[in-house]
Design brief:
Blueprint lengths: L6 H18 L5 H6 L11 H7 L1 H8 L2 H22 L7 H24 L3 H30 L20 H8 L10 E4 L6 H8 L4 E5 L8 E3 L12 E7 L2 H11 L1 H16 L1 E10 L3 H8 L4 E10 L8 E9 L2
Parallel strand pairs: 1-2, 1-4, 2-3, 4-5
Antiparallel strand pairs: 5-7, 6-7
Bound molecules: S-adenosylmethionine.
Length: 330
């Protein structure tokens, strides 16, 4: 047995093992996660040998509350990434963060107990199998309860278990689709749902604009805010331009089609976004939102301009996919 790993080397290897676990499950869907338990109840090859070899160091590492908290946070971020990559319409609120935190904390403590109890690698394999089975069952329950709360009924048919990946686009593509010209945008610019790479915000800043990105997953750079739209304070008369390319409105439409109660929250947020615009400020988004724009088209406070892009094949909201610019004029 080797004793040559210092805590930071050990931590790097543990984080790598977590990444490998998600990579190994890359081909699986969320429906597999709920209905094909056996696919998730095993560790990747090599993890057993690694953890048996360094069992004392790992158990010591896991005895420290700060290490446990850091590893749990890393696991939660990876789990959320994994989930959102498979269906972008899932969005765990704070309450689910708390459930996940409690679960990962407990899981890591149980791994520590297994490492302390095992006398042989076979013992460890058996203990790990039991711990992983329980862990997967609980995570499965957390995801199922989220899906059932979103849309009650037969879980097999739940829309959140379908694969709806989340793509990110080049700045040029986004600006073109929204019909925007960088030089004509009014500062400050807020990109809501800017994506984990924040491409458009970086591009706008490189072109001298004052731009900020907001998303639940953002790059670790200045001018990006990692927060849920529903928790962010957009303020009043603050933004020259708000951009939402295939983000806020895509989610609004999905919710409108599947969960009318939650759609009210989107409608309220839509109105706060409009009142956070300065006079002359614009909210630019695609796809368009026919069911709410009709209301603003009738008021004297805003103008609504729609540009048809192409036939809609995915969202089921009608014949067309269009971009919208709402300008605050009063
Ligand atoms: C399809 S991606 C589009 C990214 C970017 N606008 C682009 O076109 O490349 C949608 C983005 O919305 C973000 N998102 C979804 N729901 C969110 C929420 N409630 N709060 C913050 N961001 C959210 C996702 O994390 C994702 O990055």
């Amino acid at each position: 047995m080797s004793h040559h790993l210092n805590p930071s080397e050990l931590e790097a290897l543990l984080l790598r093992s977590i990444d490998q676990r998600y990579e190994a499950k890359a081909a699986q869907s969320l429906a597999d996660y709920i209905f094909s338990n056996h696919l998730f109840q095993s560790f990747q090859p090599g993890f057993l040998d690694f953890s048996y070899r360094y069992r004392e160091e790992i158990a010591n590492y896991l005895s420290d509350e700060q290490h446990l908290a850091a590893l749990s946070t890393y696991c939660i971020r990876s789990t959320k990434n994994y989930t959102y990559q498979r269906n972008q319409f899932i969005n765990f609120p704070q309450f689910y963060d708390e459930l996940l935190l409690a679960q990962y904390h407990d899981f890591l403590l149980q791994l520590k107990n297994a490492l302390e109890q095992a006398d042989t690698i076979e013992d460890l394999a058996n203990l790990y199998a039991a711990v992983l089975q329980k862990h997967h069952e609980r995570l499965r329950l957390i995801l199922s309860s989220y899906c059932a709360a979103y849309q009650p009924g037969d879980l097999q048919k739940n829309p959140l278990l379908k694969t709806v990946p989340c793509a990110e686009y080049s700045p040029q593509f986004q600006l073109h689709l929204l019909g925007l010209d960088t030089a004509e945008l009014a500062d400050p610019i807020l990109d809501i749902g800017c994506g984990e790479s924040g491409n458009l915000v970086t591009y706008l800043r490189e072109n001298g604009r004052i731009a900020i990105g907001l998303d639940r997953l953002v790059p670790a750079l200045p001018n990006f805010v990692q927060q849920d739209w529903f928790a962010f304070d957009f303020g009043s008369a603050r933004w020259g331009t708000i951009i939402a390319h295939q983000s806020f409105s895509t989610h609004f439409i999905h919710t409108h089609l599947h969960n009318s109660e939650k759609a009210q929250k989107y409608a309220r947020l839509y109105m706060s976004l409009l009142s956070s615009l300065k006079l002359g400020g614009k909210f630019c988004y695609a796809p368009g939102l026919p069911f709410i724009e009709a209301h603003n088209e009738k008021t004297a406070d805003y103008t609504v301009t729609k540009t048809i892009i192409e036939a809609d094949k995915t969202l089921g909201i009608g014949e067309v996919f269009y971009s919208t610019i709402v300008e605050r004029i009063a």
